[in-house]
Specification:
About 70% of the residues lie in helices and about 0% in strands. It is built from 19 helices and two strands. β1 and β2 form a beta hairpin.
Length: about 425
């Protein structure tokens, strides 16, 4: 009977939840996995009890985020198993969604990631049930007006965490190949997260809040990248209005600050992940949906990225220029384009001030960095019309005649 089943469920559940207390992570993970799979076999008995325990952890801070994470892992197994086996999850969604939404703004990154993964899988299974609710939550957390009082930063942090979870959930759904036809109509609502309610990061004074809002934009950029990479049709008609205007800004955004580490201070740039993600989107768009990109408008961004202080940003820019040399060479002979590339490339190749103080690994990394810039120079030189730019011709010939680069150039020429 159901009563006996409920008793058995309670006994088994206590057994598995007891496993959550073990010091060994493998045992805790196995307990969560087993609990989720038992629930699949008897949803009406197991699932309500899992969700009840989950709700208890949401209202009891002492209940430890560890239990919350493990219970969410069980829920993830329930959702994933339904998705993999084509089992209808619709009857259980009204029970599951409210409990997941309780943790949308959790302070724990791991918990929010688990919620996002559950919601992403649910989008794949029941898009017309989940997407409207996420759309509504996005509007709530990006348009909420908070009074001018001491609680405003706390509310904005909570909103930022919720927006991060939503963007990450949509990214998961896209990467798992959710239905394009069902998801496409909702994308404009989620793309507002690229501007996160319009908050200006350059003027935000609260460091913690700025980090949260940067994380929202980064999550939104990763969502866009997933769409361009896995399902470019999702954004084919939306890039010009909903993506590119913000992408151009975020690709150039810098948020430097000094961190006091006690004995010394360190300069950091909070916008660095945004610049990297933006360039990744440009690169993927050129490959997957080139008609959505205004290539001439991209050239000034590439020139700035080539002179970025961060090595990874420069290498991203190098790869994009190499792709343009191969696929869209005509854009490189537009007025002023090659000239704008020369100074940052030359600066990268001729940097020597720190070489004597570098370790072997650091020197090897620097040489790879220089090789990447040389590779760009060689490819540009082969584009018809580029040599007519006097600045580039002088730059190319000077570097090629420099003894320091002879061995590198010889090896790279063989690659081409």
């Amino acid at each position: 009977t159901l009563t006996n089943g409920a008793k058995i469920a309670e006994t088994l559940q206590r057994l598995y939840v007891t496993g959550f207390e073990y010091p060994h992570e493998e045992i805790r993970a196995a307990s969560a996995y087993a609990l989720g799979h038992f629930a699949v076999g008897s949803m009406e008995v197991f699932l309500p009890q899992i969700l009840t325990r989950l709700q208890e952890t949401a209202t009891n801070e002492v209940a430890s985020s560890k239990h919350t994470y493990l219970l969410l892992s069980s829920v993830k197994e329930v959702v994933r198993t339904h998705q993999l086996n084509g089992i209808d999850l619709a009857p259980s969604l009204p029970l599951m969604l409210p409990q997941l939404f309780l943790f949308l703004s959790s302070k724990e990154d791991g918990i929010r990631s688990m919620v996002a993964e559950c919601l992403g899988s649910m989008i794949c299974i029941q898009p017309l049930t989940v997407l409207p609710k996420l759309q509504e939550l996005t509007q709530t957390h990006t348009t909420k007006e908070v009074g001018n009082n001491e609680e405003q930063p706390l509310q904005r942090e909570e909103d930022a965490r919720a927006c991060w979870t939503i963007a990450t959930a949509v990214k998961f759904a896209i990467s798992k190949h959710s239905s394009v036809s069902e998801l496409k109509g909702y994308m404009p609502s989620f793309l507002v997260l690229l501007r996160d309610g319009g908050n200006d990061l350059t003027t935000e004074k609260d460091i913690d809040l700025k980090e949260r809002e940067v994380s929202v934009r980064n999550a939104a950029l990763l969502m866009v990248y997933a769409a361009v990479h896995h399902q470019p049709l999702l954004l084919a008609d939306l890039m010009t209005e909903h993506v590119l205007p913000f992408l151009y800004k975020l690709a150039l955004l810098k948020l430097p600050r000094v961190v006091d580490l006690g004995p010394f201070k360190q300069r950091v740039d909070d916008a660095l992940p945004l610049r990297k993600a933006s360039l990744s989107i440009f690169a993927a768009s050129l490959e997957k949906c080139p008609s959505s990109i205004d290539i001439p408008a991209l050239m000034p961004i590439l020139a700035t990225s080539l002179s970025d202080k961060d090595e990874d940003v420069q290498l991203h820019a190098h790869r994009i220029v190499l792709f343009l040399c191969s696929k869209y060479p005509k854009c490189l002979v537009l007025p002023g384009v090659v000239e704008s590339f020369c100074d940052p490339l030359e600066k990268r190749m001729t940097i020597t001030s720190k070489e004597k103080h570098m370790t072997g690994t650091e020197l090897e990394r620097l040489n790879e960095w220089i090789k990447s810039a040389l590779r760009v120079m060689i490819s540009l030189n082969k584009v018809e019309g580029v040599r007519s730019c006097k600045r580039f011709a002088k730059f190319h010939d000077t570097i090629k005649s420099h003894t320091k680069f002879q061995s590198m150039l010889g090896a790279l020429e063989e690659e081409h």
